[in-house]
Prior knowledge:
The protein is an alpha+beta fold. Helix content is 19%, strand content 40%. It has one domain (9-89). Strand 4 (52-59) and strand 5 (62-68) form a beta hairpin. It comes from Halothermothrix orenii (strain H 168 / OCM 544 / DSM 9562). This is Metal-binding protein.
Amino acid sequence: MGGKYRDNKIKQEHTVLDEIMPFLEEIAKLTPVKSIIPGRINRRKGSGIQAYLQLKYNTPSGLKIIGKTSSSLQEVFVVTDEPEKTVKLLKEKDFVK
Length: 97
């Protein structure tokens, strides 16, 4: 099938950490979200934490979020024309810290 495809609004070009995929699937249901693009994965020392998402900053196309697990970090880009509304929804639903 080649390297890139979309499942719902989530672009599947790179590996997605299993622990953050449920969060991304819920974010994809939000109306202002056009697309979710998982990015680079980095290792971190194991800390035994539950997986969570951390809001980083706005980008020209939307938002950058970091997915954190006990052993890895993954950049996630959320494409939206309404970043402020999207941030508000993400916080209301406790999707991000």
